[in-house]
Each structure stands twice: as C-alpha cells, then as structure tokens.
Amino acid sequence: MQSDDAQYLKRKVKPGNIDVHPTEKALVVHYEVEAAILGEKGDAMHEERKESQKIIRLRSLNASTDVASLARKVVEECKLIHPSKLAEVEHLIFYLQNRKKPSIEKEEKKLVKPRELTPFEGMEIDEEANINKIDDYVELLYEDVPEKIRGSTLILHLARNPDNLEELLHNETALGALARVLREDWKHSVELATTIVYIFFCFSSFSQFHGLITHYKIGALCMNIVEHELKRYDLWQDELQKKSKAYILDNLRREHEKAYKKYQSLLVKQEQLLRVALYLLLNLAEDTRTELKMRNKNIVHLLVKTLDRDNEELLVLVISFLKKLSIFLENKNDMAEMDIVEKLACLVPCDHEDVMNVTLRLLLNLSFDTGLRTKMVQVGLLPKITALLGNETHKQIVMCILYHISMDDRAKSMFAYTECIPQLMKMLFEHREEKIDSELISFCINLAANKRNAQIICEGNGLKMLMKRALKFKDPLLMKMIRNVSQHDGPLKQLFLDYVGDLAAQISPEEDEEFVIECLGTLANLTIPDLDWELLLREYNLVPYLKDRLKPGSAEDDLILEVVIMIGTVSMDDSCAAMLAKSGIIPALIELLNAQQEDDEFVCQIIYVFYQMVFHQATRDVIIKDTQAPAYLIDLMHDKNTEIRKVCDNTLDIIAEYDEEWGRKIQSEKFRWHNSQWLEMVESRQMDDSEPYLYGDDPDALERPDLFYSTGHYFIIDGSICAFFYCNYINSSWITEKVVLSQYLESNGSNGRPATAYGFRPDEPFYQGHGASS
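Structure tokens predicted for Kinesin-associated protein 3 (774 residues):
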C-alpha cells in the first residue's frame, strides 16, 4: 500500500542479454525494470523489479540481406541495445540468416523421437494453404462434416510450418472453432478428429504453447478419445471373432475376407488417431503436474492396453511414453498391476530396431524393482535377453538389465543354464583397454558369487586367464571377482593352490590399497588343509606387514579388517599360529579390539582369531597366561550381537576346558548372568490392582502342601542354595554349551568362521553398485 507521504515514482531500465528467437527470424532483448516509490526526502519507500523482453522481428531478413547495415539499423532504433553491442547484434543476425528452419518432429528437447507423423488419408488436398486466407478456412468449420474436414486440413497445412504458429496463436477465433468442433464431432468422424488433434499437436511440440492447449482442455479430450477408441477396438475384435466363426461354419470365405478388409481399414484410421493423440499427450507430459493429471485419469492402463497392437510406429510411441512414466513409483506399480512384463516379453526379440531399443530401455527402468525382476525370469526373458549380448546396438542396455537380475540370489543360479557366462568371459579376455567397463565387471562379480557360475567361470583356463589379467593390470574389481570365486568350498579352492604365491607377492605397502584388500580377501578364503601357511608367510615376509597393519589408524578400516580375517585363516595352522604368537600379534589384536570395540565386525573377527588360536597348545598358553584376552571374552559373553556371542561362548568353552582357574571364573559369570536374568524377570512382574494375589484371590492358597514340588535337597531350610545344586547347574550348563559349540561348527562350516560384512555366504550380493543407470 502506498503511504501518504509518498511523492513520486522512480523508474529505471537495465538492458540485459540479447538472444535469437527459437523459431522466428527475430532478436530477443532481455531487460529489467526497477520501480521505486520515493518519499518526500527522496528515500525509497517501496521497490519492485520485473524482468521483461522485447522481440525485434526481422521480416526483411533473407539470404541477400546486408547483415552489417541491418545490425546498425537495429541498434539505432532500439534504445535497449547499447552501441557497444553492435558486433554481437551483427553476429546474431548472421546466425539467423544461415539458420535452417526447425522441424517440429526433430526438436532436440524431445525425450523420445518416434518417426515423423506422416500425412494420412484426408490430408491431401489440391488447394495450397495460405495464411492470409485463415478466416475463409475457419468459416468451413461451421459447415457439414466434409467441409469441416477440408477446412481443418487447410489449417493443418499452415500449422505444420512453425513460422505460422505465432500468427495462428493470436487468432482466437480459429483456435476456438477448432476446439469446439473437436469437442462436438470427434465421435462422428475419425478423419476430422485426427486432423484437429494434429493441429494442436503442432503447438504441443513447443513448451511455450502448452498453456494454449491447456486453456482449450485438449489434453483431457485426447484422454477421452484414446479411452473410447480402445473400447471400440475391443468391440471390433469380438465382432470379428463372432463373424469369423459364423463364416467358417457356413463356408462363406469371400464374406469373411470382406469383413476382415473392412476391419483393417478401420484399424489403420484408428491407429492414426491414437498415434497423434498419444504424441500430443507425451509432449504435454513434460510438465510433471500435467503428467500427474494423466495418471489420475488412468493413462498407464490405456498405454499398457495399447501394447497389444501390431503397428510398430504406434508401439515405439507407446513404449517411449511408458518409459518416461516408469521413473515414478506410482506409475511403475500401475504397470506391475497390468502385467506389463508379460506383454513386453512378447516383443523380445523384435525385428524392428526402434521397438527393440525402447522395449529394452523400459525393461531396464522396470528392473530396478525386485518383484518385476523376478517376473522377468519367470516369463522366460532371461535367455531372450542373454541372446542379445552379442548385438552391439543393445549390448550395454542388456548388460545393465542382466546386472540387475543378477542381484537376486535366486536368479544367479539361472544364468548357469544360459550361454551368458561364456560370452562374458570372452568379452573379458578380448577387452583391450586396461580398465574393464563397469557394467561388465560388475555383472561378472555378481555372477561369481554363485557356486555353479563360479565352476563355469573356471572351466578350461578361465581362472588362469583371470589371474593373469588381474595381476598384469592390478585391477581391484577383477580381483574382487576372483575373490568371489575363491569363497566356494570344494574343488574350486584347490584351483588356487597354484596362485597363492602370486597373491602373497601383491601384499606390500607399495601396492594399491584396494587391490591389496582383494588379494588378502582371496587368500583368507583359502581354508585348504594342504596349504603350508608358515612357509608362505616366511617366504614373502608377511608377518611384519600384518602386524604393522593391526595398529589403529595405520590404514583404512577395510584393509585392517582383511588383515584380521587373514590372521584368522592362517591361525588354523599350528606352527603358523605359534609363529604369529611369538611375533606379538596377540597384544596388537587386543589393542585393536579396544580401539574398535564399537564396531561389531572387528570385534567378531578378532574373537574368531582367539578362537582359532586356543586350539593350539603354544598359542593357547600365551592367550590364557600372558594376556587379558579371556577377561575381554567374558565381558563380551552377553553382547547384543548374536555372532559375537556365539564365537565368544565357544572360545570360552575351550579355555575353561584347559584352565581350571579361568573355568571357575567363566562358570561363575555364566551363573551370575542367568541368575540376574531370573531376578530381573521376577522383579519386572508387577501385580495388577485387579489381581492383588499372584495365584488368585485366595491368600491361603500357598499354604497347601500338595502344591509344592520336591526340591530334591537343592535348598537348605533357610532358603539358600546348597553346593550340590550349584555343581549340578554348572555341569548341565557346561553340557548345554558343548552342544551349542557342536551345532555352531556344523552350521558355520568346518572352520566355524563368522560371516563378514563383505560376505562369505555364496548367494549374497557382493558387488551391486555401478555407474550405469536409466
């Protein structure tokens, strides 16, 4: 609100950038207007800024125009352009002079580029359209249907030229008449509806005209048209099927052919209308708010239903539309409810390259959903897509889809029954560049996590070639794939005996840390009885390296963790464990345990090292007598982490068996824990006001001798526990713990190793991140 002491308005114009008009032969001058209301003393009381633009149309510009003279004239007549910008204006005019006219269908900003909409039956006329006769064409829209078709067709010829759109935009009479005719007569004539929708489609190719289409509600009308035509198609199908049966029974072959030709003629016209209407909707869907309105009107249902058609040009458009919609969760869910994967499976493979390309891209978007990935496998898409790996046009998209499918444990094993793995191995070996494509190596890493796939990978010289390339290029991702292969029990581990020396040679401070992590992880997986770990550690002098890396902060946590896991593996060897104990690794592990006590992964793997070492006499004595490791283990007996509790309990069981003093401490702690749990349970049970007595309303109920169980001499008269009960409790607890140890070893393999965050379970997804997306 303007105050009483305001005196006058101050206005200031600031010139801005100069651009060329996107479609016309014109310059666009941007400028900013600053307005301020000043008070009596000249101070600004209210200020506003507004950005504007001025369009300078160069109607006389053609190939023979003198650009320099025209530029000087523009600068002289337009006060918004400073004389210092003469050279810039001249350059822009020269650009306009040589610019080719833009094509609606080839505009770069379009998300998809289905083939250009070609003229259809009813568009060809002898008369040449003239923009100056637009009023005459509009008058034809008030006549009968044939004249309306003729008038709209003439206007369409004008609209197909982008230079005429601006002038048509200002002719509200023409646009209003077109919208009215479409709204009233679209059911009466497919040709008329197609022609008028095509006119508005020409406007929809440019974002600045979308407001016009929204104003006349053409988008909503197109939705109604598409829905109606799809219902008509269903009726035609039913009618044709009934007639076919009748003609076959009556042996009227000629009548059947006549009915089928009529159906085909209707189908061609209908698909022309569907194509132009859906193309218009696709253009409008650039605005997510408009797209939401389409979803609310069930656009996904209509598009998926259209996938039953055979028209390849229409399919390209429909699938491209679905691909755009699929990036939103709600639309993806709608597609899943419509069984879209089953419909797309019928299009793979396809002879039409454009249909094949957009179908695979849509499948890639859908493959981010676990349920839809499973559906792809169920409908038999896996072997179909795998067969396309050899097609250079589709290889990258296919690789990404298969990579997503390989993330699911159940799907991994399915690849063993296709020709996928041999093709991937061939790609790996023929790859000439040092760095392998991220999609390819990520896919291979996932597949190697399955035992059967790993066996196929190692067939022939597979493992040898992988090791050779990984060691040559020091590729951590390829070594990660090899690491996944090495985790599988059975003959696969034996294949690595020839490469333990090569792997051990890579473990040094000079090598890349990521590569060392994978080499350590591969060696740690080799729980092979025939492997002489002591000789390997001495030959490659690995003990100092392992000990140095146990110091907190000496390296990244991932590397330190792999060192701990490696120590746990080599500690299975008696002489190797003794050598590590003499080197002072056990105190280093305890120090690391203190530093990483909040990290369950570190705690679990360090305790596992102790578990391995207490099996051997030499290291057992060091752990029990020279360190405080048992005390740490007692503290961790009741950790919240289940894996930690299991490994800790089993380690303490072995310590208690060989050392009486620690055995009594461990038994006492177990009894104390169980007793405290019982007391907490009893104390936490509060009596409700409605039940003042725990055993009912009778206060004398506990006085009945027949309700008491025999104590078996476990309690003395004063209520304390006798020694006989204590000893029996401890013995029963000890037996229980030994059973748990046996079950633990059976469930975790012969070495009883706990699973790490990296994963030692064959069907876990190990490497699921790569750069490609859609």
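The chain has five domains: 9-98, 131-297, 314-417, 439-531, 539-679.
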